[in-house]
Amino acid sequence: MVARQLLGHWLVHESPEGVTAGRIVEAEAYLGPNDPASHAYRRTPRSRPMWGPPGYAYVYFTYGNHYCINVVTESEGVAGAVLIRALEPVAGLPLMRRRRGVEREELLCSGPGRLTQAMGITGAHNGVDLCAPPLYIARGGLLPGEQVASSGRIGVVRAAGWPWRFFVAGNPHVSRGPKEAVR
DNA sequence: TGAGTGATTGACT
DNA sequence: GTCAATCACTCAT
Known about the structure:
about 180 residues, nine-stranded antiparallel sheet, 3 helices, DNA-binding
């Protein structure tokens, strides 16, 4: 599963204010029409990138306050994406702190809405190519299999029990959902 | 045309 | 532990 492979890679954003980067420590898979919890379950103009070619970003705005970023993983014409839920900050921490307004490193990127704010990602990045600057994914070191845990998805009502959430076990930057993670 | 819901976070009791 | 903020989109008049 692609969500599993995404862990350990870096998400890099080269913005005019400076470069920020983080290691992906938590990701969640969403499919298309077969997944009741996915935005692709009901097609919307905003989520159109989910049907696009793989390697592109799908950024959406939710709850009136927060952005979330997805990586499109399926081929063109097939809906499918991986939601990036948490990052471990590795570069541009001062800039992240300024954008987030918090000092603690664990609070900078430990959540979907938090990491987009820390990285400076907005709706303007919807549909951009993640294989080229200014916003892209870089290959990170391989992750030992025993460090990767999975659990049911967080924050969704439908199909929440599907074990499509992957995260780095014991990493302090992983978000804690309303439900306790089932290792 | 209007009410309800949501892949969330942060502030307040 | 509870609740508000606030926007895109769906569903019901």
